[in-house]
């Protein structure tokens, strides 16, 4: 039986490259360097002993450092902290899942490290094993750092936002349908979208991701994710399917169009967030609101001419999701 076409597949279809181009990209992925187990000392040298000057930031997993390997590759090294809210299970989960994927819109994992520091100045002396993940370095900040700051938001014109939306959609479509095993990310949001030097988006942070059995429509699981981005049926009943990622993607699209953060957007007393406010729109008012935001981004004409199919999909998702169980996947 033919598999029903998914929401994400319909979304990216008008912008797909030829089969030949896709095959060339597959060959590039196969030729990419395999994940490897890095010695701790190599990563310490690459980051100058994890110096504060090389620190890029810190998340639930722990600090992230910029480094340069001996072969010249720039890397981002994520280091599990002892007091991390994410533990060894999430570390292994991310390492296992990312070792299975190769896509231009998913952050590339070069390797990992689980070892005791050999240097006496680095070793804690209690046998603790450091746990690190080594990724490609993505030069721009995460999307939230640009989108939700008034001054930096100006860098994101409509074309960039449009391309980011399509890139994330392609990455999700790959994870859901084209990877060896279906992967549900469970935490799609602006802070987990990294931007490379060409503004191409890369989905990151797979600590909460789940493999999804092909013979099931959904699985029951412990709820995990970020408030404001989780699908209602997942929050209320723990029913996880690829629709959960599609819902989160829809919230991200609304944020990109409006420049507002869903969780803190309160334009009216009867709407507690951006998604609830938009769900009250009629179809025609949603159309005008979307077009107005694109006019503000100074690309109104090209938006109308080139992206009519794209807009139709956005309207369908944003207008209909709160009234049913979400786009069919």
UniProtKB/TrEMBL annotation:
GO cellular component terms, semicolon-separated: plasma membrane
Keywords carried by this UniProt record: ATP-binding, Cell membrane, Glycoprotein, Kinase, Membrane, Nucleotide-binding, Receptor, Signal, Transferase, Transmembrane, Transmembrane helix
Compartment annotation: Cell membrane
Top-level taxon of origin: Eukaryota
Keyword Kinase found: yes
Pfam families attached to this UniProt entry: Pkinase
Domain (Protein kinase): residue spans on this chain: 50-329
Gene Ontology molecular-function annotations: ATP binding; protein kinase activity
Keyword Oxidoreductase belongs to the record: no
Listed PROSITE patterns: PROTEIN_KINASE_DOM (PS50011), PROTEIN_KINASE_ST (PS00108)
GO process annotations (BP): defense response to oomycetes
Membrane topology: Single-pass type I membrane protein
SUPFAM superfamilies named in the record: Protein kinase-like (PK-like)
Sequence similarity: In the N-terminal section; belongs to the leguminous lectin family. In the C-terminal section; belongs to the protein kinase superfamily. Ser/Thr protein kinase family.
PANTHER family reported for this sequence: CYSTEINE-RICH RECEPTOR-LIKE PROTEIN KINASE 3
Protein's name in the database: Cysteine-rich receptor-like protein kinase 25
Species per Swiss-Prot/TrEMBL record: Anthurium amnicola
């Amino acid at each position: 039986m033919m598999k029903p076409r998914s929401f994400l597949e319909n979304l990216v279809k008008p912008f797909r490259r030829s089969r030949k181009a896709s095959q060339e990209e597959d060959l590039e992925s196969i030729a990419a360097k395999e994940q490897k187990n890095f010695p701790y000392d190599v990563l310490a040298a690459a980051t100058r002993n994890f110096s504060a000057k090389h620190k890029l930031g810190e998340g639930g997993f722990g600090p992230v450092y910029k480094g340069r390997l001996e072969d010249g590759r720039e890397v981002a090294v994520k280091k599990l902290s002892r007091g991390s809210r994410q533990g060894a299970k999430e570390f292994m989960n991310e390492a296992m899942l990312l070792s299975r994927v190769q896509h231009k819109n998913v952050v590339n994992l070069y390797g990992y490290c689980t070892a005791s520091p050999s240097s006496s100045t680095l070793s804690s002396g209690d046998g603790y094993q450091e746990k690190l993940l080594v990724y490609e370095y993505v030069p721009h900040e995460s999307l939230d750092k640009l989108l939700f700051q008034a001054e930096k938001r100006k860098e994101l014109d409509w074309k960039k936002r449009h391309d980011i939306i399509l890139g994330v959609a392609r990455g999700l479509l790959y994870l859901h349908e084209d990877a060896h095993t279906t992967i549900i990310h469970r935490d799609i949001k602006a802070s987990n979208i990294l931007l490379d030097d060409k503004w191409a988006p890369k989905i990151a942070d797979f600590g909460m991701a789940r493999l999804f059995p092909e013979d099931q429509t959904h699985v029951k699981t412990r709820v995990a994710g970020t408030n404001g981005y989780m699908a209602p049926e997942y929050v209320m009943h723990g029913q996880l399917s690829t629709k959960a990622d599609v819902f989160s993607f829809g919230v991200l699209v609304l944020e990109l169009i409006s420049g507002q953060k869903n969780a803190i957007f309160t334009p009216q007393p009867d709407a507690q967030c951006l998604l609830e406010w938009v769900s009250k729109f009629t179809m025609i008012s949603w159309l005008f609101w979307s077009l107005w935001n694109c006019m503000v981004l100074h690309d109104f004409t090209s938006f109308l001419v080139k992206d009519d199919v794209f807009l139709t999909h956005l309207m369908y998702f944003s207008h209909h999701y709160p009234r049913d169980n979400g786009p069919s996947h």
